[in-house]
Amino acid sequence: MGRFLQAFRRLFSGALFLLLLFYVSGGISHLYGFDPSVLSRIQLVPALLAGSFGVVACIAFFTVIFGRWYCSFLCPLGIWQDILARLRKKKFTKIRKVTGLIRYCILVLCIASVIGGASLVLLLVDPWSVFGRLTTTFVLPVVTFINNLLASAFNYFGLYGVVAKKYNFAGISVFTIAVISLAFLGYFIFFSGPRFWCTTLCPVGTVLSWLAKKSLVRVQIDQQKCVSCGLCEKHCKTGVITLKTKQVDNGDCVACFNCLPVCQYDAISYGFSGKGKST
To answer: Residue 28 — pLDDT band, cuts 50, 70, 90?
Structure first.
């Protein structure tokens, strides 16, 4: 079951990421009658700012039930981090953990900025906004170049199915913020852990961590089966597994399911909390 959950999560999030990537970069507008822009409207902060409280309520409800599934299934910035983390061949022996004061200060600043009528602080750290800036800065030029290259090739043979597009530079401020964001992400991924942003800086992650802390379905360790081999702790993206106490901090678990298939003793599982299991 663990391998199935891991594979399903990777396939689902990968497909969604590609759709969002091409949507934001202008690669597709409609796909077989489906409007990809609806995918942007199920992101937490855009839904909240747009007053789509039904979407916000659904995300909150499913987080209380299943934990922080949003961070691994729907958040495009989370998937960005997973891709970048694969460039780091060596596994982390210990994920860096910092005081929760930092994340709460960032959340308070974001809330204060929105209340004050200026959402600048929120947009600097909101995962959807960061994803959008990274995509328009680093992916859009490549997509535009390939599109125009194909258009020229097709036109040469009298085929006009591909139309050349003009690349519009978003501006030096957007470019600068995108470069800084990528630098921060890269630093955190390579020196602090694959999902350090999610557990320390992301305001969405902070809110969802409260809701997921006592989720009904969660990653849990069977203390009777566990032999403290350390494989699950080694493969955990967020460093939420404590081997000494055999505990899992579900508030910061992003439901990547990487820990499940590596356990050779069937001691770690994802399901309803049960007797003899620690969470």
So the answer is: low
pLDDT at 36: 65
- State whether the Cα torsion 154-155-159-160 is positive or negative: positive
Name the nearest CA neighbour of 92 among 198, 186, 189. Answer: 189
Amino acid 58 reads: C
Long-range contacts, 182-185 (Cβ 8 Å, 24+):
182/134, 182/138, 185/80, 185/81, 185/84
Is pTM beyond 0.90 here?
Answer: no
- Separation between Cα atoms, residue 170 and residue 40, nearest integer Å: 19
CB atoms within 10 A of CB 250: 21
Q: How many whole angstroms separate alpha carbon 236 and alpha carbon 242?
A: 10
Question: Which residue in the block uniquely carries the two structure tokens 């990528």?
Answer: 182
Reported as a single tens digit per residue, the pLDDT across 217-250 is 999 999 889 999 989 988 888 889 988 888 899 9
